[in-house]
């Protein structure tokens, strides 16, 4: 590297700073752009042909650096507190599938009348009166069955904590399946 390259390189620095200010009004960002330009130019100094215009060469590097930064900034979104990122995340699909299997198993343990009522009201979206008409009982009976079914499902699905065994722990009733984690039931054969 010749001494003339180094002298020309340093001599064009004020012009490069002025040119950077035409792209960036903020002094700090303009200085960052100048620094990036000078680092890139210094790294590729072997590609500079002596006798050509040093200022034009540096201006071209600066302009290309600015355009690259501008394009990159258009694709980036500032998310300092992580709110946007949190909204973009998705829970694993297997958790929903396992929860659905657990719900199916829990529904199977309900007495037929409670299961029928909670499915008509909860899953089919019928009103209590409509469900009562389908089942052939009073609306109050449907409300009672749905209420008991929901409470039982909450116990089975672990939504009410680690409560007692179903039906108050009576000896002949099925035991509550052990939990593998919040809302996840293991299949257990009752002897």
From TrEMBL:
Which residue numbers delimit the RNA polymerase sigma factor 70 region 4 type domain?
102-153
Q: Name one Pfam family in it.
A: Sigma70_r4_2
Which InterPro entries has this protein been placed in? Answer: RNA_pol_sigma-70-like (IPR039425), RNA_pol_sigma-70_dom (IPR014284), RNA_pol_sigma70_ECF_CS (IPR000838), RNA_pol_sigma70_r2 (IPR007627), RNA_pol_sigma70_r4_t2 (IPR013249), RNA_pol_sigma_r2 (IPR013325), RNA_pol_sigma_r3/r4-like (IPR013324), WH-like_DNA-bd_sf (IPR036388)
Q: Which residues form the RNA polymerase sigma-70 region domain?
A: 12-75
Name this polypeptide is given? RNA polymerase sigma factor
Disordered: region residues = 157-191
| Organism of origin | Pikeienuella piscinae
**Per the UniProt entry, what are the Gene Ontology biological process annotations, in alphabetical order?**
DNA-templated transcription initiation
The alphabetical list of record keywords is: DNA-binding, Sigma factor, Transcription, Transcription regulation
Recorded GO MF terms: DNA binding; sigma factor activity
């Amino acid at each position: 590297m010749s001494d003339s390259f180094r002298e020309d390189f340093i001599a064009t620095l004020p012009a490069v700073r002025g040119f950077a200010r035409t792209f960036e009004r903020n002094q700090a960002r303009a200085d960052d752009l100048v620094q990036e330009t000078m680092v890139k130019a210094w790294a590729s100094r072997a590609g500079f042909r002596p006798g050509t215009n040093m200022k034009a060469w540096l201006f071209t590097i600066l302009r290309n650096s600015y355009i690259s930064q501008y394009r990159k900034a258009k694709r980036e979104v500032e998310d300092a507190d992580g709110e946007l990122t949190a909204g973009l995340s998705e829970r694993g699909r297997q958790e929903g599938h396992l929860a659905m299997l657990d719900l199916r198993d829990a529904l199977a343990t309900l007495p037929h009348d409670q299961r029928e009522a909670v499915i008509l009201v909860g899953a089919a979206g019928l009103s209590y009166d409509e469900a009562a008409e389908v089942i052939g009982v009073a609306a109050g009976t449907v409300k009672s069955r749905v209420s008991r079914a929901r409470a039982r499902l909450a116990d089975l699905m672990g939504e009410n904590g680690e409560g007692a065994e179903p039906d108050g722990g009576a000896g002949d009733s099925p035991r509550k399946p052990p939990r593998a984690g919040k809302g996840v039931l293991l299949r257990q054969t009752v002897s």
